[in-house]
Design goal:
Blueprint: E1 6-7, E2 12-24, H1 63-75, E3 83-84, E4 87-90, E5 100-103, E6 113-118, E7 124-136, E8 140-142, E9 151-153, E10 160-166, H2 173-190, E11 202-212, E12 222-227, H3 230-249, E13 257-262, E14 267-273, E15 283-284, E16 291-292, H4 295-304, H5 309-320, H6 324-331, H7 334-344, H8 349-367, H9 378-389, H10 395-408, H11 412-418, H12 427-440, H13 442-449, H14 456-466, H15 473-485
Helix pairs in contact: 1-4, 2-3, 5-6, 7-8, 7-9, 9-10, 12-14, 12-15, 14-15
The structure holds adenosine-5'-diphosphate and magnesium ion (MG).
Adenosine-5'-diphosphate binds at residues 16-20, 165-168, 207-209, 218-219, 221.
Length: 486
C-alpha cells in the first residue's frame, strides 16, 4: 500500500488514527425496555417509564440485543466473552433523564478482533478491534426549532448501541474510510445495524495524532466526536493531522482534548480540554446481574452465521474467476452479490460480472433505482449473456437488447425473436453482402490490392452496417479477407 506521508518544509510526518463507532442495534424494542425503536415516529411516543427515568423502574435486558451483539462480534472475527457486566456511567445531560447511562465498562461482551479492509491500489490491510460493548443510547436535544427554547425527544433514549473500538492502526484517511465502508457492509450483511450514518444509526468518534515519519511512538491524540459521514471522517483526519504538525513544528505541544468537526469548513474546533474531562464515576449497575453466556448459546449463534463479504469475495475470485476488484464491488452489498449469483448461475460468470459492472449499474444509476427495483431481472441478465455466449446475438446488438429490457422488463429471447435481431452466421448470406460491398466499391478494392491492406477493416465495417449489425463479426472478418485476397 502506498504510504500516506505528510511532507512539510521541515520534515515528514505520519498520522495515527483510532476509531470508536457507535452502531444502533436493529431490534424491535429498546435494550432495557419494551418501547419501540422505530425511527422517525412522532417525538416522545416511544418512551416507557424505564426510558423516562421514572423512580423505581427497573431495566430488563433485551435478549435480542445480546444476540445481535454476539453476531456482530463473530462478524468482527472477535472473541465473545462469556462473562460481561453492566456499569453506570454518571453524567448530567438534559436528554438523559436517568442522569446515568447503562453501559459496559470493565467487562465488555466482545473482546479483540479484526477487519480486513480493501484499499484502492488493490491491497488489503488488517485493522485490529480492541473491544465492543453494548449500552443504551441517549435521547435527542433539538435546538433549532425555536430561538429561545430547546426540545427533547426521548424516542431514541434506551435504543441499544454497540460501541466498537479499534486499535490505533490507521495510517491514512483512506484506510479509515475503507474501514467504515467495510464495517457498514458487514453490519448490513448481518442485519445487526442499518449503518445509515446520515440518520445517526452509525456515528464515529475519530482519534488523531501524528508522529515523525519512521518513529514508533504514540503521541497525544485529540478526539473528534460524532462525525457523521465517511467523507467527513476522512476530512477530519487530514485537517486535524495538519493542525498537530503545525503545532509541533512551531515548537508547541498538542493537548489532549475533545474537538468538534465542522462540516461547513472541514476544520475542527475545541469542545473541551482534558482538565474538564468528565469523571463518570463508573460503578457496577446494581439493577442488572452480570451477563453470562453459555458455550451452547454462542455456538448456536455461530451456526446462524451467513457468508460475509470477505469469504464471498474469495469464493467469487477462486470459484467463478472474477478479478479481485469486480469481486470486491459485487460483494459490498449482499443484495448485489445475490443478484449477481442468480444471474451468473449456469452462465459465463465473468461476462455477467462485466455486464453488471458496466451497463447494468449505469442503468440503475441513470434511473435512480435500487437493485431490488431493477426492471432487468437477474434471470434475464443471465439469459442475455447466454445469447452472446452462444453467438445468437453480437455484443453490440446485446446493448440494444439490454436497452429494451431496461424499458420493458421483457426477457431477451423474446425481444431478439420479435425484433429479428438474431445474428446471421449463415455464410452464404454474409457472402452475398460482401460481394455487394465489393461490387459497389471498385476503387477501394483496387486500393486494397495495391497494398492498402488495412482497408479490409473498412469492408468489414460496411458489411456489418449493411447487415444492420446482425452478421457475425468473426465470420465477416474471415470472409472479407478471403474475398479480397482471391
Ligand atoms: P480511552 O480509554 O481514554 O478512551 P482508549 O485506549 O480506549 O482510550 O482509546 C480510544 C481510541 O483512541 C481508540 O480507538 C484508540 O485506538 C485510539 N488511540 C489511542 N491512542 C492513540 C493515539 N496515540 N493516536 C491516535 N489514536 C489513538
Ligand atoms: Mg474510549
Amino acid at each position: 500500500m502506498a504510504e500516506y506521508i505528510i511532507e512539510t518544509a521541515k520534515g515528514k510526518w505520519e498520522v495515527v488514527v483510532g476509531l470508536e463507532i457507535h452502531c444502533q442495534i436493529i431490534s424491535k424494542s429498546k435494550i432495557f425496555s419494551g418501547a419501540s425503536t422505530e425511527f422517525g415516529d412522532e417525538p416522545n411516543t416511544n418512551v416507557s417509564f424505564v426510558d423516562a427515568g421514572m423512580p423505581g423502574m427497573l431495566p430488563t435486558l433485551n435478549k435480542e440485543c445480546v444476540h445481535q451483539a454476539i453476531k456482530t462480534g463473530l462478524g468482527l472475527n472477535a472473541k465473545i466473552n462469556k462473562y460481561s457486566e453492566f456499569s453506570r456511567k454518571n453524567y448530567f445531560y438534559a436528554d438523559m433523564p436517568t442522569d446515568y447511562q447503562i453501559t459496559q465498562f470493565r467487562y465488555p461482551i466482545v473482546g479483540e478482533g479484526n477487519i480486513c479492509v480493501d484499499l484502492s491500489d488493490g491491497s488489503t490491510k488488517n485493522i485490529g478491534i480492541e473491544r465492543m460493548h453494548i449500552e443504551q443510547d441517549a435521547g435527542k436535544s433539538i435546538h433549532d426549532l425555536s430561538p429561545t427554547k430547546s426540545f427533547i425527544d426521548l424516542n431514541r433514549a434506551g435504543v441499544g448501541l454497540m460501541e466498537i473500538v479499534t486499535k490505533p492502526d490507521f495510517r491514512s484517511p483512506e484506510e479509515a474510510g475503507a474501514f467504515l465502508r467495510k464495517l457498514r457492509s458487514i453490519l448490513r450483511y448481518l442485519g445487526t445495524c442499518d449503518g445509515n450514518m446520515d440518520e445517526g444509526s452509525m456515528r464515529c468518534d475519530v482519534n488523531v495524532s501524528v508522529r515523525p515519519y519512521g518513529s514508533n511512538e504514540f503521541r497525544t491524540r485529540c478526539e473528534m466526536k460524532n462525525v457523521n459521514s465517511v467523507k467527513f471522517v476522512m476530512q477530519a483526519i487530514e485537517n486535524e493531522a495538519k493542525r498537530h504538525i503545525e503545532v509541533y513544528e512551531n515548537g508547541g505541544t498538542v493537548e489532549q482534548e475533545t474537538r468538534q468537526f465542522d462540516p461547513s469548513t472541514g476544520l475542527t474546533k475545541v469542545m473541551r480540554k482534558k482538565e474538564f474531562a468528565h469523571d463518570y464515576r463508573y460503578f457496577p449497575e446494581p439493577d442488572l446481574p452480570p451477563l453470562i453466556l453459555t458455550d451452547e448459546y454462542i455456538d448456536s449463534v455461530k451456526n446462524e452465521m451467513i457468508e460475509l463479504p470477505d469469504a464471498k469475495k474469495q469464493r467469487f475470485i477462486e470459484k467463478l474467476g472474477l478479478t479481485a476488484y469486480d469481486a470486491m464491488v459485487l460483494c459490498e452489498n449482499k443484495e448485489v452479490a445475490d443478484f449477481f449469483e442468480k444471474a451468473a448461475a449456469g452462465h459465463d460468470a465473468k461476462k455477467v460480472a462485466n455486464w453488471m459492472m458496466s451497463d447494468f449499474f449505469a442503468m440503475l444509476n441513470k434511473k435512480h433505482l435500487e437493485i431490488s427495483q431493477s426492471p432487468v431481472s437477474a434471470e434475464n441478465l443471465g439469459a442475455l449473456v447466454e445469447l452472446i455466449s452462444k453467438e445468437v446475438i453480437s455484443g453490440k446488438i446485446a446493448k440494444d437488447v439490454f436497452e429494451i429490457m431496461s424499458e420493458t422488463g421483457e426477457n431477451p429471447e423474446k425481444i431478439v425473436e420479435e425484433k429479428g435481431l438474431k445474428q446471421v452466421t449463415d455464410t452464404s448470406a454474409i457472402e452475398a453482402i460482401i460481394e455487394k460491398v465489393i461490387a459497389d466499391n471498385p476503387d477501394n478494392v483496387a486500393a486494397y490490392k495495391n497494398g492498402k491492406t488495412n482497408l479490409a477493416g473498412w469492408f468489414v465495417g460496411q458489411t456489418l452496417k449493411l447487415s444492420q449489425g446482425k452478421a457475425n463479426p468473426q465470420i465477416v472478418n474471415k470472409l472479407v479477407k478471403e474475398k479480397l485476397d482471391n
